[in-house]
Write a structure and sequence with these properties.
Elements: H1 3-22, H2 33-52, H3 58-84, H4 95-108, E1 110-115, E2 120-124, E3 128-130, E4 133-136, E5 138-143, E6 153-157, E7 169-171, E8 174-175, E9 178-179, H5 185-193, H6 197-208, H7 221-224, E10 226-227, E11 234-235, E12 241-242, E13 249-250, E14 256-257, E15 264-265, E16 270-272, E17 279-281, E18 286-287, E19 294-295, H8 307-322, H9 326-338, H10 345-350, H11 352-362
Antiparallel strand pairs: 1-2, 2-5, 3-4, 5-6, 7-8, 8-9, 10-11, 12-13, 14-15, 16-17, 18-19
Helix pairs in contact: 1-4, 2-3, 5-6, 9-11
């Protein structure tokens, strides 16, 4: 027997031993814990954004939250279906069946290999291209000693082209080398338990070449577009802009124009005028000398005051102008003295109008 045949036979014996052991163990039910944990994280992020008033990023977080909830609901529905339609486990395959499956794999896939030391079978897919997005080839690595467990295989990007916002998302349905199996979960499970290795690799390959936006970890737009650094929304290169101060990438909705110099800036490089609510850059911002509120140049008076502080200052000056001056008081007092009816000093100071009336009545 050739060395390659011996290696395949040893792998077949190990795989059959694993499947025989599983035939006496009841199936486990896996609840969508990862989806639920992600839902909780996104719920906290959305609440935080709403509390801080970050209106730009709320729609993005809310969209991810809704997609995550839908994914969690779909997984729970599949669990319900498994409970209601559970069938008997497939009979363990014979040694010859498993050997035949291993022997046929090199003719169906590129990059076939068997790792006896680590108990793994690997095949390489062709390049995966979804809606003109080239994601490159993937290696599907089955760990036969983990068949029957929740994570028995990995999907590894050989030429990684991850989503712009998530470096561990190499495919819309692959995150951290784990495939979101969707409707193919039961088919994958039964293929592995039956020893139909070729069917298993074909099913996984078919999922990799299919895009379902409703259950994707990341949408395909996150590969082609550029993420806005303010709101996180992905935009095309034509709709991309940038802050002239910090050079962060922005979408057009997050671009603010300084009221004074008309520079195109991000939200973080501008401040709001407390009077007219327009945005001004840090270079053009001015501060009221009295209340220290941020103002634009149009809302600051010549005295360096904002509108409210200037109104208060004008009212104070008007009240001071209405009070009698010392010269006016002395003139009235002298007139009353000439008439011989000079009042007491305190009355003349406090009631100048009465002093004038007394002088006229004496005449």
């Amino acid at each position: 027997m050739e060395p390659n045949q011996k290696r395949l036979l040893r792998a077949a014996e190990s795989i059959r031993s694993r499947l025989l052991r599983l035939s006496s163990i009841s199936d486990e039910i896996y609840l969508p814990e990862e989806h639920w944990n992600e839902c909780q994280t996104l719920a906290r992020q959305l609440q935080f954004a709403e509390t801080r008033g970050w209106d730009y990023c709320q729609p993005v977080v809310r969209d991810r939250f809704e997609r995550c909830i839908l994914g969690c609901l779909e997984r729970l529905q599949r669990v319900t279906q498994e409970l209601s339609t559970r069938r008997d486990k497939p009979a363990p395959p014979t040694l010859g069946t498993i050997y035949g499956e291993l022997h046929a794999l090199p003719t169906e896939f590129d990059g076939f290999s068997v790792d006896l030391e680590h108990g793994a079978i690997s095949v390489t897919t062709e390049r995966v291209i979804l809606e003109d997005v080239d994601l490159g080839p993937f290696e599907i690595r089955l760990h036969w000693k983990r068949i029957g467990e929740h994570r028995s295989y990995n999907v590894v990007a050989l030429e990684p082209n991850p989503a712009a916002q998530s470096s561990d998302t190499a495919h819309p349905h692959v995150r951290s080398e784990q495939l979101c199996e969707g409707d193919g979960q039961e088919a994958i499970r039964r293929a592995l338990l039956s020893g139909r290795l070729s069917d298993f690799f074909q099913i996984v390959t078919q999922i990799l070449n299919t895009y379902n936006g409703g259950s994707a970890y990341a949408s395909l737009s996150e590969w082609e577009g550029i993420a806005c650094d303010d709101c996180g929304q992905f935009v095309s290169e034509d709709d991309r802009s940038f802050c002239e101060r910090c050079e962060r990438d922005l979408c057009l909705d997050c671009l603010d124009a300084c009221e004074s110099c008309e520079s195109r800036l991000c939200h973080g490089c501008t401040e709001q005028c407390q009077c007219c609510k327009t945005r001004v850059c840090r270079r053009c911002r001015q501060v009221c000398d009295q209340c220290e509120n941020v103002c634009c140049a149009n809302c600051l008076s010549e005295n360096g005051l904002c509108e409210n502080c200037q109104e208060q200052a004008d009212e104070t000056n008007l009240d001071e102008d209405e009070q009698p001056t010392n010269e006016a008081t002395e003139a009235l007092t002298a007139s009353a003295r000439d008439a011989g009816t000079a009042p007491q000093p305190d009355s003349a100071a406090v009631y100048p109008d009465r002093l004038g009336q007394a002088a006229l009545s004496q005449r």
